[in-house]
Amino acid sequence: MGEHVHVRFSEFLGVSENGELVERSRCRCGATWTRTYREEDGEPSPPSSS
User: Fold this and answer.
1) What's this model's pTM, rounded to 2 decimal places?
2) What is the chain's pLDDT, residue by residue, as a tens digit (50 residues)?
3) 1, 11, 18, 44 — which has fewest CB within 10 A?
């Protein structure tokens, strides 16, 4: 059997109560990722996986 490769599908893109841009994505296998962007930082946070 072949190795699984995560394919990220966009699930949500919005703004949190703190004013951060929040991007959520998922894979068909059930894995999910959330990435947040803050204007002060200029760079996105590393994706967290669950």
Assistant:
1) 0.63
2) 578 899 999 999 999 998 899 999 999 999 999 999 887 766 666 666 66
3) 1
